[in-house]
Amino acid sequence: MNIKSKFSKKELAIIGAILYSCEGTQLRRDKRRNNVYYWVIEFTNSNFKIIKLFVVFLKEVIHIDRSRLKGQLFIYDDVHRKELEKRWSKISGIPLVNFNKTIVFQAKNSEYRPNPNGTFKMRYHSKEAFQKLDTLIRNILE
User: Fold this and answer.
1) Separation of alpha carbons 93 and 106, rounded Å
2) Could you give the number of structural domains in the chain?
3) Range of the domain at 87
4) DSSP labels, 6-30
5) What is the pTM of this model?
6) Cβ neighbours for 10, distance < 8 A, ≥ 6 positions apart
């Protein structure tokens, strides 16, 4: 059973709103551009299933144009970058050409074992989509 058929549209809306409230970037001002608002949906997680679920939410509830969805991977230097980029691309449905530059961190100490899958961030620039998501969150949480 796929995610789309597993949940009703209402359930998917509630799940997506709660996920974004916990893991999404809130509205902020861009100080580089005279404090204008930065209308972007950004969602970060390291769980493949959560990312896949959030993509379905964006498509089915927010009605995004998937061709405009961007991805970015954050990893440590001890993992296979190209393999992870391909895997996250497949899971998220975001083509590699829509990926921003992968950020590679140096391991801080040998005792710490970072997530071998890295952390994935999705970005979608749209004032209309952000406002729709924000309204949905406010309606569900009030």
Assistant:
1) 28
2) 1
3) 3-141
4) HS-HHHHHHHHHHHHHHHBPPPEEE
5) 0.87
6) none
